[in-house]
Amino acid sequence: MATIQRVPSSPWRAMIESAFFANSVRKVSMAELYALAVKQPEVFMTTQPMYQPERFGFPKDAMVLVSNDGGIFGRTARARKLVRSFTRAERDKCLSILGEATYTLNKRPGLWLEGIIGLHHDFMVKAHLLSPEGDAKNMLDWGLNFLPFMPPWSDLYATSRMLDEPDILVMADPEWSHPEFKDGLVIIDELQNCIAILGLRYFGERKKGTLTLAWTIGVRHNMVACHGGIKKIINKPPIAVFGLSGSGKSSITNSEDHDGTLKAEEKVIVIHDDAFLIDLDNNFSIALEPSLFDKTDSLEFDDPTLKYFYSAQNVAVTLLDDGTRKIIGKDIRNENGRCIKSRDMFNHADFCEKPGIVIWLQKDTSLPPITRVHNPAMAVGMGASLSTMRAKGVENVDPKELEKLVIEPFANPFRVHPLVVDCNQFFKLFKQGCECYIMNTHAFGLPDKLVDIPKRLSLSIVTELMRGTIIWKEWKMFQGLSIPRNGNELFGSEYDRKYKPPKDMTYLSFLRERMQDRITFLSNMRDLERDMDNTFIDPLVLARTVIDRTLNPI
Asked: Model-level pTM greater than 0.85?
């Protein structure tokens, strides 16, 4: 077995674990969950056949089920509370709340589903989900998104590497409420691998909460926690891309031909577009999920990818004259419609070697479409200050926040271990020879003179990075970065005119402001949070100093 049983050593795990053993709770199979979800009052049964239902023990005629969550269609980050950050008063208060939550959950019929996180024998963690019986559809989706604990996956788990870790425990009650926590409450004890998700219906809370604990386990075993995508092109080192939803992470990872820029012999193998670990000791990059949790904002009415659907959430359903009930995508009903589907829609594998290229996907308009980072410390600093905009509807935030440029270190808002830990892990990766690049996938230039960066250009850039055809020259105004010398040759005759960084003072002032935003963020992490090292700030300060000398010559 890959994880071991321990006597709980924190009250948080003791409360959550005990809740699994109440008389009201029974273990459940995927087949029983499907039967319960079909009868769940708020669930819609479509007439879209589910992809390969027999592998989960479902009936051969199983259909895609749709669940909608009410008025919230995304994650609620403000609900998350880390046990390690509690004051004594907060600890006592939340322990009491958790105790009441387990009591009220156990007063109702409950279901216990076992699963596996990780798709390689080097990293497989057993996980357990406890929810009320009325939440069968979310539990079903959790089993479809990860691996249910059943053959053949349970057989592989039995042969996997032993990890000195307790199993992951997830307790979720969407019916919970509390007057002080109107947005819900998520209590995370990452040291004990347990989480309580209270008052939140959105499936993504269960998925990302589980991944949060799996990533943290991996880091404790000298791995790099990656909220990103990774793919391999035959005979080339793997490419990993990191970005929030809407940055192009999935578009780049899952593209098999890079919008026609790849040759037929340049075969793509996709590992995953959302979550993986890099094992620095054993040269593995390991996917954590067998399925894709994808947006349906571009889903056509009779899209061929519907064939690969297992489930869907927060999408519309319509009845046609022939009696069929069809899913409507394009986010017509609401933003952030989602589906769970198989990776069989393209060539894929569960693992590969560690990446040879890492790309930070940013929406910082002061940066051109592609730059190369030479210094490992600068590579970490630029990743730790990854600047982007949040995708509309993905998170439950004030709409005004969606217009702001935000910094999300390594594009991972689900990190619960200290940031400097991630910095040190990525630093090790870059010191081992991994190359680092920054791609701006949004637009370039001053706020009133933006030039769009089309998706095809971004995909073309990834193609040429893989081929190693870009010739680099020093970007004198941003010390530590390089820009393409042969951009016109590779990406069209207009590339330099549109995207070559200008030397005028207005642009340089804008670039300096954005650099200072990064420095300020990292410095605050160092000074206020005690969670950053000067090693990763100094290269940015040095780069800003070069611009200062240009703007204010002595």
From this structure: yes
